[in-house]
Amino acid sequence: FTGSELSLERAKYRPVLPAVLAGPHAVREGESRDCCGDHELICGLFPHLCGTSNGHTPLKMVHLTAAAPAGPEDGPPGRPLQLGVVLSGGQASGGHNVIIGLHDYLQRWHPGSTLVGFLGGPAGVMNNRYKVLTADELDGYRNQGGFHLIGSGRDKIEKADQLEAAARACAQHNLDGIVIIGGDDSNTNAAVMAEHFLAHGIKTRVVGVPKTIDGDLKNADVPISFGFDTACKVFSESIGNIAIDAMSAKKYYHFIKLMGRAASHVTLECALQTHPQVALICEEVEANRWGLKGVVRQVADVIAQRAAEGRNYGVVLIPEGLVEHVHDVSTLIAELNELLAQGVNAVDEETIAASLTPESAEVFAQLPPGIRGELLQERDPHGNVQVSHIETEKLIIKAVATELARRKVAGTYKGKFAALAHFFGYEGRCSLPSNFDATYCNALGQAAGALVAGNQTGVMATVSELQLPASQWTVGGTPLLSMMHLERRAGRDKPVIKKALVELEGPAFKAFTAWRGQWAAKDCVRSPGPIQFDSSSFGDLACISLALERNA
Ligand code: FBP
């Protein structure tokens, strides 16, 4: 791996550390929280974390507070700590800074401390594949994108034999703590591990760190997952450039699919950054039970309205999870899931069509053959449709073209329609982290170190008050169980961390709906340009949706 001039320059950037982490501090328990749903049932499933088996008050928030500098009466400083760290799930900019922040904290805590990096994600914990991370090696990864220092993976540690394998690895390294850097599923597994370790008298503490570019791991206590800010800035730069090209050439509509599987936070933030003519938001589509025809009609309405003004160009943003939220397509997917589970051959489209309900059979027949194949064959190991592999942008283009052709015959549309398809996803996950993500991740890593040192387990490291300068950010831990509720998965109720979806009553969505009519009708394009690393520029500002949420 060869560093560019810019990446070498970025390695010199020193994130500001929140004052509470920089100085002497104490870890204190604060107010109580309930699980976000099904509290009693979840406590029954996690008796040790909930404290129901040992009489502790359930689900305590944790806060770092400034402490008086240690004096001679405080005795010797803390003993060296042994910690493990693992990256889990999709890449997100800033992961290396979390690990470096953790290492820096440990070295400050006691220079004899050790950090073990498990390789290739959770599988590395179960197989005990690891390397000991040293200051010399880590220095080359400061403020760099990617997860290639130790790699990542999508395996889960949840079954009894997997938990035992993880426990063996932790025991072999005599780990005081393990830090799991991941999204909602990985942090759900972190809670399962923490409970297992407590139940079996294993000393290793488990602390989570919120990661995902999708931005759907957040709540009142966790302001944002890392990587979201950088990914949105990278995508918005390209969207802004394309929008200016569209406005200059005046001949294309650009349909851009954006990553973000279950929630449309990325699309919403990119819309606020760039002011496209249309941005579809899955949560709105689902709340209104819009079908494919309804969605297509809305896009065609904007195109026809603009054509009447001589504007046959523009930008349409499409969240990658759209097909799972469009009412009739999601019903079709559910029926296909059933048929595939019954063992129907995924390539036998004729038998499949004959086995569907009449409504779903009609939707299935209307889909282009390529998309039909993708819905049947593009499945992940859990049987879920791999939405980033489905060419939704092309599906929408075809359906809109058909609708516009129909309107042309009816005499209600007189424009020209030429469309180009794009997909922005992987290019936003490993960029050099924005100043925000670099600073936030360093603080998250240090916070995770402080929580293990403070003997906390089953908590997620949290860094808050992000609207303030970084030196004033607050630091603490939120019980993982407080984010959990029961969800029906594979036919049974499972405790999982609740995904944060776009709130239709929230300030970010309201700002979007207040402006979108104007963006549709006119050319109000905003081109934010590349991520700015100069801290005197706008680069330090966190994303617009976060600013709106924090100021609401
Ligand atoms: P995480 O939730 O694990 O962070 O991953 C999110 C994501 O980037 C989605 O936006 C996308 O659908 C998916 O990963 C792609 O997964 P893969 O890297 O396995 O192709």
Layout of helices and strands, plus pairs?
Elements: H1 5-10, H2 19-22, E1 25-32, H3 39-45, H4 47-50, E2 60-66, E3 82-87, H5 95-109, E4 114-118, H6 122-126, E5 130-132, H7 135-139, H8 160-172, E6 177-182, H9 184-199, E7 205-210, H10 228-249, E8 253-258, H11 265-274, E9 278-279, H12 282-287, H13 292-308, E10 314-319, H14 322-325, H15 327-341, H16 349-355, H17 358-366, H18 369-377, H19 392-410, E11 419-424, H20 435-453, E12 459-464, E13 474-479, E14 484-489, E15 492-497, H21 507-521, H22 544-551
Parallel strand pairs: 3-4, 3-6, 6-7, 7-12, 8-10, 8-11, 9-10
Antiparallel strand pairs: 1-2, 2-13, 4-5, 12-13, 14-15
Helix pairs in contact: 5-20, 10-11, 11-21, 13-19, 15-17, 21-22
Bound molecules: 1,6-di-O-phosphono-beta-D-fructofuranose (FBP).
Can you walk me through this structure?
With 552 residues, this protein is α/β, with parallel strands linked by helices. The protein has helices at 5-10, 19-22, 39-45, 47-50, 95-109, 122-126, 135-139, 160-172, 184-199, 228-249, 265-274, 282-287, 292-308, 322-325, 327-341, 349-355, 358-366, 369-377, 392-410, 435-453, 507-521, 544-551; strands at residues 25-32, 60-66, 82-87, 114-118, 130-132, 177-182, 205-210, 253-258, 278-279, 314-319, 419-424, 459-464, 474-479, 484-489, 492-497. The strands form 3 sheets. A 9-stranded mixed sheet has the order 1-2-13-12-7-6-3-4-5, with helices on both faces. Strands 9-10-8-11 form a 4-stranded parallel sheet, with helices on both faces. α5 (95-109) crosses α20 (435-453), α13 crosses α19 and α15 (327-341) packs across α17. Bound molecules: 1,6-di-O-phosphono-beta-D-fructofuranose. 1,6-di-O-phosphono-beta-D-fructofuranose (FBP) binds next to loops.
